[in-house]
Amino acid sequence: MRKIVIAGNWKMNKTVAESVKLAGELVAAAKGIRQVVVAIAPTYLALAKVAEVVQGSNVKLAAQDVHWENQGAFTGKVSADMLKEIGVDYVIIGHSEQRSYFGETDATVNKKVRKVLSLAMTPIICIGETLAERKEGRLESVLTTQVNGAYAGLSADEALSTVIAYEPVWAIGTGVTATDDEAQEAHAFVRSLLAKLYGDSVAQSISIQYGGSMKPENAAGLLAQKDIDGGLIGGAALKADSFLGIITPGEGLSK
Ligand code: PEP
């Protein structure tokens, strides 16, 4: 059985005070959630305060990025040990905004994934094609390169401790969502890539989230798809009621 994991990526939104407030609202709202794993990713600055708010609740803490080195002269960066120390469970790695604005590559994704796994946190590995790549018929080759790059050198046991977020870049923050069928097709392909690397049983155990303008109105349809095991949510995660409106349809689904 795969876990349904729904994570809110707050990006560069919310002050520390606003983050603490939203986290508190979510902790209260998610009290009745039993099956879905709920996680929130505030900014680095707010992580420690939000960690105090979610402690003992069923809301997990996620970071938006990490550096692969332990410490040293890496201005602006945060290490995995620092995240671990304050109780981070999940780390988003390779988000398309990191890839397009900040020079993230499949090689740096791989280094970050290894570091996060070595400290028993769960990487959420983001992959996805741009509109141009999709139009040029390169969807499968892009996903293949990204998956093979992210998982290079990882054992099956390590792979089992990862989550993938399939996020078509053209759907992120645009209001345009992949249709249920488009998303399911891409997810099935990603799972087939994992099966090639690790065999079917491992591939069937790895949760693959969908990301890209997911909201309460389209969550039920997407989450009902056979190979969609949750969501990575941007805009709709910035308010407790809309985030909860995505989480609730995930309850009771078994994958
Ligand atoms: C994201 O940034 O991962 C994302 C899916 O954003 P949005 O939900 O706003 O499209």
Commentary on this structure:
With 255 residues, the chain is of the alpha/beta class. 44% of the residues lie in helices and 15% in strands. The protein is built from twelve helices and eight strands. The chain has helices spanning 16-29, 44-54, 80-85, 96-101, 106-118, 131-135, 139-150, 156-160, 180-198, 200-203, 216-223, 240-247; strands at residues 5-9, 37-41, 59-63, 90-93, 122-127, 163-166, 207-211, 230-233. An eight-stranded parallel beta barrel has the order 1-2-3-4-5-6-7-8, surrounded by seven helices. The longest helix has 19 residues, at 180-198. It is globular, with a radius of gyration of 17 Å. The termini are close together. The mean pLDDT is 97. The structure holds phosphoenolpyruvate. Residues 9, 167, 172-173, 211-214, 232-236 line the site of phosphoenolpyruvate. Phosphoenolpyruvate binds next to strand 8.
Helix content: 40-55%
Rounded mean pLDDT is 97
Shape: globular
Major β-sheet profile? 8 strands, parallel, barrel
Spatial extent as radius of gyration: 17 Å
Strand order of the largest sheet: 1-2-3-4-5-6-7-8
* Helix/strand/pairing category: alpha/beta
Helical run tally: 12
- The stretches of 5 or more residues where confidence is low (pLDDT under 50) are none
Strand content: 5-15%
Number of strands: 8
What small-molecule ligands were found? phosphoenolpyruvate
| SSE topology string | EHEHEHEHHEHHHEHHEHEH
What is the end-to-end distance?
6 Å
